[in-house]
Amino acid sequence: MDNFPINIEAEESATFCSNCNERIAPESRFCKYCGAIQPQEIGASSTEEKWVAIKQLGLFFVIDAIICCVAEFTNFFKSFTWSVTIDIFLASCAVFFFFYNWRSTKVLLNWNNFSIVKLVAYCLSAILASLTVSFIVGWLNRALFSKVFSYYAFYEHFNYGKLMTVFFIAVMPALFEELGYRGFLLQKLLQVVDKKQAMFISAFLFAIMHTSFISLFWLIPFGLYLAYIRMKENTLWYGVGVHFCFNFTVCVSEFYRLGHLFHH
Amino acid sequence: MDLTTTTNTRQQITNCASCFNQINQDDAFCTSCGYPLKGSEEEQKNFIMEKNTKEIYLEEENRQIKKSGYALYYIAAATFLSGLILYGTSKNAEVKNSILLINTILAVIYAALGFWSKKKPLAAIISGSALYALVFILNAVTNPLSIFSGIIWKIFIVVNLIRGIQSAIKADKLSKELNIG
After folding, report:
1. Residue B156: CA atoms inside 13 Å, Cβ hemisphere, count?
2. pLDDT tens digits along A189-205
């Protein structure tokens, strides 16, 4: 009984029991020495921990939803000052939840495998996607509502109108929506569900938060794309780049359309 | 079939008496389900009893998950219905079309989520709850009095969605312990 044949292959691909620390085969669901169940996913949590995680997610979502709905659908906060204030509220909310969970989210701020080629490739894909989406949405808006929507119109009359548009439409959302949705939300979801479900839920919540039905058809895929990039590259920064390029292209297209691209 | 004799023979048993998966005769516990292969009769009986209890709990949780799926279908129907009613009673031609369209799309999304709750209950119910919360907040912000209309149904829906999430979490854990799915 003591002369176990030494199986070299088994030794090289082994894991250790989470309970008794004996060496066991990686695919075992239960330890053959002590019978303890082996956690299948990384950072598996108990049911209570999962419920707490869901409550935190819910809180983040509800706060964002209240801010967005109040901003969009009431007439109280339509001035420029209020618009900036609302943006700051949303950004602060994302930052707060991200840093409240610093231990699990901080790894996403690293950029270990920085590759200029990857970054350029991702950004080009974003620009392409943005042009396609703008084209389709523009057509839909004209066909269904016979009107054209403009982000630039809000900032046009300011001295640095173009710069402001780029800041509020491209820079801020890229940073803070990534922090909030791919940073905090997706990370929290991974503690509760598996990878694919987490990606979908984060994309779905990101999409519906924009409270625009027309845009759901591209917001959900875009959210999935951003979630996929975060999962694949294990960093937020490529996603920030993609999100920025996407929104920036929208801005530039508007400047171009209004003939304001090279002069005011 | 006497389960205990199967393990005591130790001659040609290659399958666990509890989960019937293949086992290694040298192992103290089954690596698929944790059954105490070399345990006493009492330990083995207790394991089987616990396993049966867990299966019953799992059934209960799955029943709640089903109820939450129905809640999502109910929301879908109610949304579509109110779309129809608002379409019929609205005087504004532009608005009535978009209201019907929006409510129909919403209803389709809820129904799709209800359908998805059979395969991936946690993801479907979380998504459905988020959408429901968003729509509720939107209505509350634009028309605060609407918060209280149909409040009984709303409470019923919210309770079932919350219970659905909790049940889906527990069902997940039980399935893993029983090594199902």
Report:
1. 10
2. 999 998 999 999 999 99
